[in-house]
Amino acid sequence: MKTLYDVQQLLKKFNIYVYVGKRLWDIEVMALELDHLHKAHLISHDDFIHAKLILTHEHRIEEKHESRGTYLGK
């Protein structure tokens, strides 16, 4: 697992599709869904950690873009 797309595919295995309309919010909701899957012991600890690291990285990128006024999301 290396990209946000990979995290989306992991969630898709559990019929979890996230689209809020803003990339930053999507990432935050995906993180919450991962927490729930991990708490329910439905995903491995390694998958959980990798996915959370990816989401944290992507979240930071989005925050930087928004703070600089270069956010191009929908």
Automatic annotation (TrEMBL):
<dbReference type="InterPro" id="IPR009256">
    <property type="entry name" value="YqgQ-like"/>
</dbReference>
<dbReference type="Pfam" id="PF06014">
    <property type="entry name" value="YqgQ-like"/>
</dbReference>
<dbReference type="InterPro" id="IPR023164">
    <property type="entry name" value="YqgQ-like_sf"/>
</dbReference>
<protein>
    <recommendedName>
        <fullName>DUF910 family protein</fullName>
    </recommendedName>
</protein>
